[in-house]
Request: fold
Amino acid sequence: SSGINAEWPLRPGDVPTLVSGSEDDTPNIPVTIITGYLGAGKTSLLTYILKEQHGKRIAVIVNEYGEGAAVEQPGALGVGNEKYEEWLEMTNGCLCCAVKSNAVMAIEKLMEKSGKFDYVLIETTGLADPGNIGQTFWVDEGLSKLYLDGIVTLCDAYNFNKTFQEAGGKVTECERQIALADVVILNKLDLINDTIKDNISKKIQSINSSCDIQYTTYSRINLDTILGIQAYSSAAPPPSTIEHNISSAISTVTMTTHIIMKRGDIESALETLLWEDLDSFSNSDNKKESHSMEDTGGMKILRLKGKLQTPEGWIMIQGVRDMFDITEIRGDNIPYQHLVFIGVHLDRVRLCDVTKMRVR
Reply:
């Protein structure tokens, strides 16, 4: 577990908004969430960030229950074998803190070191849902000086196909992590050939056609491709419409329209699509039952983003699972109105019916 829980479930009328920054002149800090299945290479990426001289000041929150485990990971990251909850300054100017449960407390301590870092990176465990962590930055007023910049998912290129074969047709955690990602890092490229690489890339794009795919060996990457990407800002580029005919329960559907809709109608449509399953879900004793709903054919939206025009002007929509946010933006250089849905068993007919838009 990531140890961060957003308020849940929401009810119609409880549309959350992103927390605005305070009135001081301190710039808000971008937060990147790093996720990935066990063995994908997160520890290698964190080691590179905390030990190499890359010139960036990054505060890294390491989950002690991650793939490196409590004993192995601190040593691998070069911070000694002691158990620690305090922030340590690394020789390359970065900061590091290992947490066992609540990362929010670590972040609150981090804010006392304002001015010593420019980015925050949060590692999740291999089985954690990055969506739950992302929602935290939309509801926790104590994190008002931070904003969600992007979700990065690492994938093990060598074992990628094996992971799906062992699932027996069920939706895997790896698929969910890809669905929520803004950037997917396909790691261990040295262990596969170009044909396998191309097939895996098509599989990733069939799940999430709007994500950027980066290719690495030993998780060494240009950090500018995963930090400061502004995936949740109005600067985000329009979505890709690439589709591949690969069987997967998770897919991407892009909707467009020429109609200028009222903001209230847009909110009602999104509430219908995102919250219609919450009543039965909230009565469950175990939230993991939502996965069984996905496996048996129920539609579940994991990620939502888009830009639409209302009579009052342009708005940007961002959503993760059952939460969404609407922000007024400038309409400059927006080529067309669009909504991108990434989810399980997406029903195009129902999406068209509820949103009054058409599939692009």
